[in-house]
Design brief:
This protein is an alpha/beta fold. It has helices at 19-22, 27-41, 53-62, 82-91, 129-139; strands at 2-7, 44-49, 69-73, 95-99, 121-124. It has a 5-stranded parallel beta sheet with strand order 2-1-3-4-5, sandwiched between helices. Helix 2 packs parallel to helix 5 and helix 3 (53-62) packs parallel to helix 4 (82-91). It binds 1,3,4-trihydroxy-5-OXO-cyclohexanecarboxylic acid. 1,3,4-trihydroxy-5-OXO-cyclohexanecarboxylic acid (DQA) binds at residues 10, 73, 75-76, 78, 99-101, 103, 110.
Length: 145
């Protein structure tokens, strides 16, 4: 099984940005963490990050026929991007939404998620572990194995 993990804007700043919310781990730490967990589950993962909405849309489109599922932390685009939602709908791949923090426990403008309109599952509020749970969700899903 091949899973594409997409990360949106400012996640490359992990370890520097708002550490009280996102923790001290860097983006490199996150990538290493995801790869280790995916390896243990026998899952092939590709992990990408962009600060640009259109780039994320391109990567979603290119995932069609290549990956079995998408795990996405669209970061701030979660709350604004109809374009990423449409791309996810267009490719018809199973989607899991992840967040390091718990957006619903934060400012009201973070409560709505376009990604949730297409995601099968949301894993949030558990730091790096949110990603592990999303990968596990697909790895252990009988319909995909
Ligand atoms: C985030 C939550 C978003 O509201 C925020 O804009 C982010 C990160 C998270 O992982 O907790 O950049 O997606």
């Amino acid at each position: 099984m091949k899973i594409l993990v997409l990360n949106g804007p400012n996640l490359n700043m992990l370890g520097i940005r708002e550490r009280a919310i996102y923790g001290a781990g860097t983006y490199t730490d996150l990538v290493d963490f995801i790869k280790t967990k995916a390896d243990a589950l026998g899952i092939d993962v590709e992990i990408k990050q962009s600060n640009h909405e259109g780039v994320l849309v391109d990567w979603v489109q290119e995932a069609r026929g290549v990956y079995d599922a998408i795990v996405i932390n669209a970061a701030a685009y979660t709350h604004t991007s109809l374009a990423i939602l449409d791309a996810l709908k267009a490719v018809s791949l199973p989607v899991a939404e992840v967040h390091l923090s718990e957006p619903k426990a934060r400012e009201e403008f973070r409560h709505f998620s376009y990604i949730s309109l297409v995601a099968e599952k949301v894993f949030s509020g558990e730091g790096f572990k949110s990603y592990e749970k999303a990968i596990e969700y697909f790895a252990l899903a009988p319909r995909l194995s």
